[in-house]
Amino acid sequence: MRMTPLRQGAPDDVPFSRTLTRSVHFGQVRAHLAFNRRTTDADLLILSPMKLTVDIDDSLTEPEVLIRCAEMDSDMESLISSLRMHDRRIVAMSDGKTVLLPASEVLYIESVDGKAFAYTRKAVLEVRLKLYEMEDRLSDCGFTRVAKGCLVNLCHIASLQPYVGGRLLATISNDESILISRKYARKIKKLLGVG
After folding, report:
1. Pick from 154, 146, 155: which is nearest to 178 by CA?
2. Is 152 exposed, middle or buried (0-12, 13-18, 19+ CB in 10 A)?
3. Are 116 and 126 in contact (CB under 8 A)?
4. By the 8 A CB rule, do 74 and 22 touch?
């Protein structure tokens, strides 16, 4: 078992044999981290003081993530949601085929005429479950209701602006706009840490 702290000033003998690249989404904070054996301080974007340790254990049959923190706050909840989303799949239909769509790729899910549709950057796919069923299954990994017929992946909200009647206008990472009803506006602002 080897413990490898990933922090500034790590020695050149860090036991990684290949370059690892990950896009990490923590609520509003997005970072692209790339590191390998010769990572320099300039290669890492430090978002907040957080110790990250990778423990390579050949006896494990599946990855295990342990989060230790002084208190459970919105940053930790966002981190946990992002981790849960990593392996979550949505069963959808595309051109008569069943597709297993990674939840992290879904920008939002909308109900139209009693059918649910998942929107990604590249496609719109019909989802077999009802919107309320999708909400139950995805609420613990960053999806939340923003209107009677719409769930949004919070990791893909790029901006918010006030709108008529106490509503909010959310811009999604693909530059689409989604109207957040007054009923959900306060909750969304709280979840995103903006009010």
Report:
1. 146
2. buried
3. yes
4. no
